[in-house]
Predict the structure.
Amino acid sequence: MALRPDSVIYSRWKNPPLDLNLDIYLYNWTNPEDFGNSSVKPILEQCGPYRFREKPDKVDINWHPENASVTYRRKSLYYFDAAGSNGSLDDMIVTLNAVALSAAAKTKHWDAMNARLVNVGLKMYQQEVSVTKTVDELLFTGYSDDMMTAARTMTHLFGTKVEVPFDKFGWFYTRNGSAELTGVFNAYTGADDINLMGQMHTWNYKTHSGFFESHCGMINGSAGEFYPKNLTPDSIVGLFTPDMCRTVPLEYSEAVEIEGIEGYKYSGGPRAVDNGTLYPENQCFCGGECVPSGLMNVSACRFGTPAFMSFPHFYQADPYYVDQVEGLEPNKEKHEFYMILEPKTGLTLEVAARFQVNMLVEPLKDVSLYEDVPRIFFPLIWFEQKVRITPELASEWKIIPRVLLGGQIFAGVLFAIGVIMLAWYPMKHLCSMRKNRRGNSTNKIHSNENGVAELKSMQGPEQSPLLEKTIKPITITESNGKKE
């Protein structure tokens, strides 16, 4: 079961045999002209799904037998599936201007002088609160923006305060065919402890991400392919997500059956998206912006952009977020994040990975474009990756728990035999010693008896001191000739 280059599971780990689809939904903003009117909420219309077939691969693989781990990068190729989509890449979407908002949000902690420079730039390049782009531009192809180009050429003015890593903006720009975006993974192979197989050891060569304080920044949980063995309803399954630079905890919800295999369903509940409101230990996930439960602040992880992750349609979030906009309807069947695992082996039977990207819009006194806007966590896009084990693979995986059970029984029998043999040898040795001692004692007794008999034969017949002795009369002859 351990991961190694010559193992059966290696090829399936490197190139998963299942068909993977990435379904993307975009929110079309139908009333941007009313933004700023406190009596009118933003009205959103969900568009999609826009489906892409994913062909994942792992590259730059290096094995580390000294600590039983493997280092690698992830790379995927995406192909648009027109037949499986509800719409085309040419669909026009009105959405929040993420470039302008990202630039303006940085001034929140700047001095007035630098904030005015950003304000001048926004006016110079005629930035608006919303933009209208094609689906293709918003996703993988990306689109150029004069504001980004200017920021990249003016880094000497702002120094490290401004980091513009890309020349275009797109939610999945540079992700297609790239192995750089999600970082370097190092996971355990299970060679020395099968229970650690697939668990994260480091990310980008570090055991702490640095994006969150204390234990919230620790690198742990599953890398996404293998999960702990011998799961129970009390187990919490952790999934490390590089796009959020953190581990998301999933809790047991119910037992289900997939293709004839019993599995445990672990879902993303309130704990997964809380930042201290409900679970105090999650307060270190605030990232300096503690908000009601339901959103994960990933701004530090996304180059300072005011980005917040949630489940789609603010599922499992505080009603505060849903009430800010119109058009969202949280639904467990459509928006729940879950995975179903075979409890004995940790094998994945079904997964529905669903996340939504939101951006914080709030008033900024030195930036005229955002002086009079309401404070809203604005939903922009959500995506779903759902996969289920095939009947063919299920029939093969059904054997694995039986093999493991047979192995456990066989190991138990061998252990029992070993214990019996370990106990029998000293008992046998002890019995042999006792037998030898008895033999020596018997021989000694016989030897003593023979010596005594021999001595008696030399001394004549022995009389017991308890027998009455026979006294022979003594004859005395006197001078007169009489005897007495």
